[in-house]
Amino acid sequence: MARQRLIVGTYGEINCSRRANGTWLARARYCDIDGVVREYRKSGETKTKAKNNLKAFFVEHTGTFGDGALAPDDNVQRLLDFWFEKAEQSETGPSTETLERYRSHLRWVLDPNKTDQPLGAYQLRHVRPVIIQAALDSAGVSADMRKRIRSVLVRAFDLAIFHEAINGNPATSVPTVPVPKVKKKPVPAEDLDSVRTAIREWANAEKRTGPRSVDLPDIVEMLVATGMRIGELLALRWSDIELSPPPSRRGDEDWFPWLMVNGQITSKGKRVDYGKTDAAIRPIALPDWAAALLRRRKVAQTPNDLDAVFITRNGTWHYPTNIQGRLRHIRLLDDYADLTFLQGVTPHSFRRTVATEIDEVYDAEAAKNQLGHTSKTVTERHYINRKLVVPDYRAATERLAPGPGAGEGAGAE
User: Fold this and answer.
1) What separation in angstroms does the CA of 118 have from each of 74, 99, 122, 251, 391?
2) In the structure, what pLDDT confidence band is assigned to residue 80 with cuts at 50, 70 and 90?
3) Considering only 21-30, 339-348, 383-392, which range has the smallest mean pLDDT?
4) Which terms are listed as keywords in the entry (predicted)?
5) Is the pLDDT at 152 greater than 80, yes or no?
6) 91: phi then psi, degrees, rounded to nearest 5
7) What share of the chain in percent tops pLDDT 70?
């Protein structure tokens, strides 16, 4: 009688034999998911242990159909290293700076000093949603950070599924805590001059700890003039700016000064020739007062090898984080505690101010183009702070007024 064909994922009769050294060997035929029947063997100190070891192997076994890039017994750290490697090689993947932020986020669930339940050593086959949640709970991260970590883990475990190391994604079942959506406000246009005065006063103060920050006032002025991201502004070169008309346009009344956003400074202080989005590389028209500021600055500044508009005393690019830190320092000073409009001010606050003003004068599409967004939805949702306008449609609703005597009824007194 012919041997019955095995169904995929099942095994045949387990046969055991005793070895010369006294241990037992269990073997059986198993039908892998690719339809190929293979014989597998496992040993044990006793006949029962050998059988149990082989059965346990079959329970976890995923066959030999994968490409070998990842395996069920690889740990989470190996998976994440592999995911970052693939992301760095992808032309359409996250930027280098974004990947660095992801690595920083993941430390909260990988570093034993940050969580009592680090994930790194767990084999992929053993990771469950409750294990990931335990790592997050132990780290005590905020709802926003939990959301970011979960997002990266979902993508990493999806890669493990693609390479057939696991069958399901444990990160997708980890509950997320809703993050309150608080729309950050711009600096009101009527308060801009007070903000400027406070920043310039602090930057040029004689009695102040630390070195002077002579560039900060001009950096803030240019943020107000352009709505650029802080990294974009700090990457600005003189060759990116046209402050005088070229010979072909001299006498042209339609010409105006402008600059080209051609890159950004990363959090590591490196200049790169790409932007945060596909729309980030863009021209921006300069108001006359900002063009005058740049002309004065160009005359006063000693030329530098980087051709940088804003350069440190050491001849290097400014770090975005340093500018953010200086504004934070000003906010926390007792001298400015009573200036409510200064509280919460960041480089991005001025970006929102510009978006709001352009929306009022032009429209949201114009604001989107100025800020270098790929979607008008992002501009409207996060950057434009529209004033409440009550539309007057009374000419229509007045026509629905009750007729004579209609108002007299059960409700009338």
Assistant:
1) 15, 20, 9, 68, 56
2) very high
3) 383-392
4) DNA recombination, DNA-binding
5) yes
6) -75, -20
7) 89
What is the length of the chain?
A: 413
Give all strands of the β-sheet with 24-31 in edge-to-edge order.
Answer: 15-18, 24-31, 37-44
Q: 410: pLDDT confidence band, cut at 50, 70 and 90?
A: very low
Identify the band that residue 75 occupies on the pLDDT scale cut at 50, 70 and 90: very high
CA-CA distance, 81 to 18, in Å (whole number)?
42
pLDDT recorded at residue 73: 85
CATH of 76-173, one of 3.50.50.60, 3.90.220.20, 1.10.3720.10, 1.10.150.130: 1.10.150.130
pTM: 0.65
CB count in 10 Å sphere of residue 309: 24
State the SS3 of the chain: CCCCCCCCCCECCCEEEECCCCCEEEEEEEECCCCCEEEEEEEECCHHHHHHHHHHHHHHCCCCCCCCCCCCCCEHHHHHHHHHHHHHHCCCCCCHHHHHHHHHHHHHHHCCCCCCCCCCCCEHHHCCHHHHHHHHHHHCCCHHHHHHHHHHHHHHHHHHHHCCCCCCCHHHHCCCCCCCCCCCCCCCHHHHHHHHHHHHHHHCCCCCCCCCCCHHHHHHHHHHHHCCCHHHHHCCEHHHEECCCCHHHCCCCCCCCEEEECCEECCCCCEECCCCCCCCCEEEECCHHHHHHHHHHHHHCCCCCCCECCECCCCCECCHHHHHHHHHHHHHCHHHCCCHHHCCCCHHHHHHHHHHHHHHHCCHHHHHHHHCCCCHHHHHHHCCCCCCCCCCCHHHHHHHCCCCCCCCCCCCC
Q: In which residue ranges of the chain is CATH 1.10.443.10 found? A: 189-246+254-382
Q: Which tokens sit at 388? A: 């409440």
CATH of domain 189-246+254-382: 1.10.443.10
pLDDT at residue number 181: 67
Residue 174 backbone phi and psi in degrees, to 5 = -75, 120
